[in-house]
Specification:
This protein is mainly alpha-helical. It has 52 helices and 4 strands. A two-stranded antiparallel sheet has the order 1-2. A two-stranded antiparallel ribbon has the order 3-4. A hairpin with a 6-residue loop joins β1 and β2. The protein is flat.
Length: 1103
């Protein structure tokens, strides 16, 4: 019997407690643990003993006591690893508990587990386990990003000082759930390489197989599962995975696939009879076989054993499907609803509920469930097919979840009929998505049957002609696709499809059932000719249709439209009247004829026709209601200067609003009715609301792209901007509408644009715009009057602005202003000659403008003459100013050039001086180097080098010359000139020595003498500053000759002689040498120096 031993404090005795005989209440055990100050691992053993005995509450209590604040204070930094383990154990317990709970209890357990993990991480940040705990909590909250961050930290930590691969497994699992299968596979491979094949757990290879499967590498997935079974034969995950792969590999032979998959599932069931995933997969196979009782049994066991919500929801769905198949609809509904609550993104419960709702004729609820299903699986064929039957049964054809349908259109499927159904569904809502769906359907239909592979008949060796044949496309799908191509403006492709559909109908025979489709296809072909501009061919087709089917009303209406657009208004009305003779109360023909009456301002006949519709059996026809509202607005009084007139006009607009609102109620997607409501509100003065409506209508029309053109809403929106005084916005919208819809050639819109320019004060653009509009409709008298008015105003304003000008533009503008006024006068005169009843313009108003233009012309001539005179005078002044400026600029240039020339000369001289000084400095530095060499030789006692020393000095230009050369030159001069005359100046004092003498005195010094040796620097700083400063320093140091000193103007005076009074410097007098040899040599040098000085002075005097 296992026992727990607790050491007694300060004693060798121990307390033994049998693990299977622990007290029900752990309080006594806790007292013992506290009293004996038991280590943390003993507390952990006690807790594990309680949970193994089925007492999780006591397990939690023991661990909580071990992690209490008092325990933390007592243990301090001791037992860190054991305390981390205790905290993580508590976190793991609450994580396990949260898996079986629902919110809000589940949230509380997850929060508690996270708090224990954070405490453990704070206690020892080197441990891996706390980071794993926090990451698992994040995964339970579906926070994959947070889990990944924690696991990425965990992989660099250790578990009690040892490496562990569990963090890599957790990180790979996160990447797999995120759909990053390549990253997950890389981590699984790393684990396998690190642990080796023998030590690697089966979960790693199962994970690799799952990644390969999701990546489409089914062969690698199969090999991974098989390798797992070689090492671990009873691994349920590998057996299930192989069953799935077998079902996929043999999908063409379902019986064989189910048989082989069943063998693997039986082995998985024997390995783990309670594994919910195995039970669910087996239930799927049994459901295909129709074994509903077995499905119910397995699904119930899976529900009981499943821990995760998604697995339990799938088991409940299978249970519901089995009950649904057995006719137990209420029970099936309950199971579907329960599964949906557990896991809302599971698609099958939605489909099951939709089927039940269809059976109960709750169509809207069924549609809602199917739309929710399409959010998860946008390409579900079953959901799309069922929706195709349900949408027409709705009270309205609007579908709120349009985005779901659009996502489904982007999915590719092999069934072309599904794409055709999808295109039909999207037609009223999303023309672009509908066209894309039809294109996919046509592509799938045009794919060769059996992939184009040849098929052989018996052993004859001849290929079947149908082997590579294409699927036959139904004429309805061809026609529907042509309609969408036509809306997109692709008329050539649409005509091709319609002709193909006509040929298909004709090939099927001229039966009575194919007659009507053929007529519809021929009519659509005529519409395509009409849309592409081939009006003549379209008219032929419409008339040919009427010759065979005189009751086909649409052909009459199209012929009416063609004549109306060609300006044959009477002929257009005749075709509509013919249609009404065939079908007297046809709403389409009635509305079209009423619209023509409205264009002719024939309010009475238009109202008579529309009343016959809206007050008869077509009270809810949106087209008739819309036309009636337009009629009322168009016939409202335009004169609203008096309050009475305003009230009367508002009554018209209120009545129009009623009809527009009825049209909206019967057709919620009718944006034309919405535009009418905005127009009525704008006429009533509610511009802000009207603007909001126009903006929304414009956006709705723009969302359809080129499938829906609605220029009226653009014009209305621009009119609102103009009413608000936002001229720039109004101009921009007008110009965009002209370019988008009318190719800059709509006279009415040009007039609106000109009004915007006029109100903004831009008369130039207003005039140009009106002239362009007049060119389009030259017989519009009102337009001609407005054009003349703008030209008159433009000319007068130009004269007022330019009368004070004195430039060329002012003169030209005055000329153009006169031309505008003269042209306006011609326009007014031409209108005055016409009868007022034809022009609709008051004759008195024309006479007033004519007189004004006549006076303005006279004034324009005076203004122009005055401006020209000022221009000439100003031109003379400008010429004078220009000459003065040119003279000044010339003098300035010459002065600048002279200054630059002098500057260049100064720079050249300075450069030459620098060059000379640099050369002189280099020679002085060479002198220093030679003297330093001599001094060094003297110190070493090398008399051979000392005796051969050549005397050097600098000449007047700073160049170094040798003493022998100087003496030779002097002798030559004396031989030529003879002896010195009596006028020679006296000899210089004997105590004035050359610097070379002083330097040679040092040559014979012995160590220990009082005279310090002279030291020379290689390059004094002063020499770098300039040549003059360098010579001053040389003279101060006794290194310049008399000639050099004389050049500097610094001949020594008596006061500068040494203290001995004998002409020697103080230094020379103090350091008289005792060596006779050195003295003789000094005397010789002194004599030479004296002779040299005497000769130089005498020569200088002679010179």
């Amino acid at each position: 019997m296992a026992q727990l031993h607790i050491a007694v404090l300060n004693s060798a005795e121990v307390v033994s407690i049998p693990l299977d005989q622990l007290p029900e209440d752990c309080e006594e055990v806790l007292e013992v643990l506290k009293a004996e100050v038991a280590p943390v691992n003993v507390w952990m053993d006690v807790a594990l003993a309680y949970i193994s005995n089925g007492r999780p509450d006591q397990y939690v209590r023991v661990l909580q006591e071990a992690t209490s604040r008092e325990a933390d204070e007592f243990y301090g930094d001791r037992f860190r690893a054991e305390r981390v383990e205790v905290l993580c154990s508590l976190a793991g317990y609450h994580l396990s508990k949260a898996q079986h709970m629902r919110d809000p209890q589940r949230k509380g357990d997850l929060q508690t587990a996270e708090s224990y993990g954070i405490r453990a991480r704070t206690l020892d940040k080197r441990e891996m386990l706390p980071f794993l705990i926090i990451g698992v909590v994040a995964m339970a909250r579906n926070d994959l990003n947070g889990a990944r961050r924690e696991f990425e930290v965990a992989v660099i930590k250790k578990n009690q000082g040892k490496s562990n691969m569990i963090a890599y497994v957790a990180l790979a699992s996160v990447y797999f759930q995120e759909g990053k299968y390549n990253e997950a596979l890389a981590y699984y491979k790393h684990i396998l390489q690190t642990l080796g094949s023998a030590k690697c757990p089966p979960e790693v290879r199962d994970g690799m197989a799952a990644c390969y499967f999701r990546l489409g590498k089914f062969d690698f997935a199969k090999k991974a599962f098989l390798r797992t079974l070689e090492l671990y034969p009873n691994t349920a995950e590998a057996l299930r995975g192989l069953a799935v792969i077998i079902l996929r590999e043999h999908s063409d032979h379902p019986d064989q696939a189910i048989s082989e998959a069943k063998d693997y599932l039986v082995r998985a069931y024997k390995a783990d009879p309670l594994d919910p995933a195995t039970l669910i997969m087996a239930s799927h196979l049994l459901l295909l076989k129709g074994s509903y009782e077995e499905v119910s049994k397995l699904a119930e066991v899976a529900c009981e054993t499943a821990v995760q919500d998604n697995i339990k929801a799938e088991a409940l769905t299978l249970l519901g499907r089995s009950m649904h198949a057995k006719g137990k609809t209420p029970d099936a509904f309950t199971q579907y609803a329960h599964a949906q609550r557990l896991y809302r993104t599971l698609p099958l419960p939605h489909f099951g509920l939709a089927q039940i709702y269809v059976g109960k004729e709750e169509i809207r609820n069924a549609v809602t469930e199917l739309e929710n299903m399409l959010k998860t699986v946008p390409g579900s064929v079953d959901a799309l097919k069922l929706l195709a039957h349900l949408y027409p049964q709705l009270s309205t054809k609007s579908v709120e979840k349009l985005q779901i349908i659009q996502d489904a259109a982007k999915r590719q499927h092999t069934d072309p009929n599904v794409w055709a159904v999808l295109g039909e569904l999207l037609g009223p809502m999303d023309a672009k998505g509908s066209l894309e769906a039809y294109k996919k359907a046509l592509d799938k239909f045009n794919e060769p049957v059996n992939g184009g592979a040849p098929e052989f008949n018996g052993g004859a060796g001849t290929s079947s002609p149908s082997a590579s044949a294409k699927k036959e496309i139904p004429p309805k799908i061809l026609n529907d696709a042509a309609v969408m191509f036509s809306k997109a403006g692709e008329y050539a492709e649409a005509q091709k499809l319609v002709k193909q559909a006509i040929a298909a109908v004709e090939e099927s025979g001229c039966s009575e059932s194919s007659a009507q489709p053929n007529v519809t296809l021929r009519f659509n072909l005529g519409r395509l000719h009409e849309a592409s501009g081939n009006v003549k061919e379209a008219s032929k087709l419409y008339k040919a249709i009427l010759s065979d089917h005189s009751e086909y009303i649409d052909a009459y209406i199209r012929l009416s439209y063609i004549n109306h657009h060609q300006g044959n208004f009477s002929e257009a009305q005749k075709w509509c009247k013919k249609a009404l003779k065939v079908k007297p109360k046809d709403p389409t023909a009635t509305v079209v004829l009423a619209g023509m009456y409205i264009s002719d301002r024939n309010w009475h006949d238009a109202k008579r026709l529309l009343d016959s519709l809206v007050k008869g059996e077509y009270t809810t026809d949106p087209y008739a209601l819309l036309c009636m509202g337009t009629l009322i607005i168009s016939s409202a009084p335009t004169e609203r200067r008096k309050d009475k007139d305003k009230d009367s006009a508002n009554n018209f607009y209120l009545k129009a609003l009623e009809y527009y609102q009825k049209a909206i109620e019967n057709s919620p997607q009718n944006i034309y009715a919405a535009n009418g409501i905005g127009a009525a509100l704008a006429e009533m003065g509610d511009l802000k609301t009207a603007q909001e409506i126009f903006v929304r209508v414009k956006e709705a029309a723009a969302s359809q792209g080129k499938y829906l053109e609605m220029p009226n809403v653009w014009i209305n929106l621009a009119n609102i901007h103009l009413a608000f005084g936002d001229y720039d916005s109004a101009i921009q919208v007008y110009e965009n509408a002209l370019a988008r819809f009318y190719e800059h050639s709509n006279p009415t819109l040009l007039i609106y644009l000109a009004r915007s320019h006029y109100d903004k004060g831009n008369l130039t653009d207003a005039k140009a715009t009106l002239l362009k509009a007049q060119h389009l409709v030259p017989n519009d008298y009102t337009l001609k009057f407005n054009t003349a008015l703008v030209m008159q105003e433009h000319g007068v304003r130009t004269l007022d602005k330019r009368r004070l000008g004195d430039d060329t533009d002012s003169v030209e503008d005055c000329k153009k202003a006169g031309e505008d006024i003269a042209r306006a006068l011609r326009f007014f005169s031409a209108l005055r000659k016409l009868p007022p009843e034809n022009t609709g313009i008051d004759a008195k108003k024309l006479i007033t403008h004519m007189q004004f233009c006549t006076d303005a012309l006279k004034r324009s001539k005076n203004v122009r003459d005055e401006v020209e005179a000022r221009f000439k005078e100003a031109e003379v002044k400008r010429q004078q100013t220009r000459r003065v400026r040119e003279e000044f600029e010339a003098k300035h240039r010459m002065a600048k050039q002279e200054k630059e020339r002098k500057k260049e000369m100064e720079e050249a001289r300075a450069a030459e001086e620098v060059r000379k000084q640099s050369a002189k400095l280099e020679r002085i530095k060479q002198n220093w180097a030679e003297e330093a060499a001599l001094k060094k030789a003297a110190r070493k006692g090398d008399s051979s080098k000392v005796g051969r020393k050549r005397k050097i000095k600098t000449d007047d230009d700073g160049f170094i010359v040798h003493e022998e050369e100087i003496e030779a030159e002097k002798r030559d001069r004396r031989r030529k000139k003879g002896r010195m005359s009596d006028r020679q100046q006296p000899m210089p004092p004997e105590h004035h020595y050359e610097p070379e003498m002083e330097m040679e005195v040092d040559m014979g010094m012995e160590p220990g003498m009082d005279q310090p040796q002279m030291e020379f620097e290689e390059e004094p700083e002063e020499m770098r500053q300039g040549q003059g400063q360098g010579q001053d320093d040389l003279a101060a140091a006794g290194l310049l000759s008399d000639e050099d000193s004389m050049e500097q103007g610094e001949l020594p005076e008596d006061g500068d002689l040494g203290p001995g009074g004998d002409g020697q410097s103080g230094q020379a007098a103090e350091t008289a040498p005792e060596d006779d040899t050195f003295g003789d040599e000094l005397e010789d040098k002194i004599d030479q120096g004296t002779a040299k000085n005497t000769t130089r002075l005498g020569d200088s005097d002679d010179d």
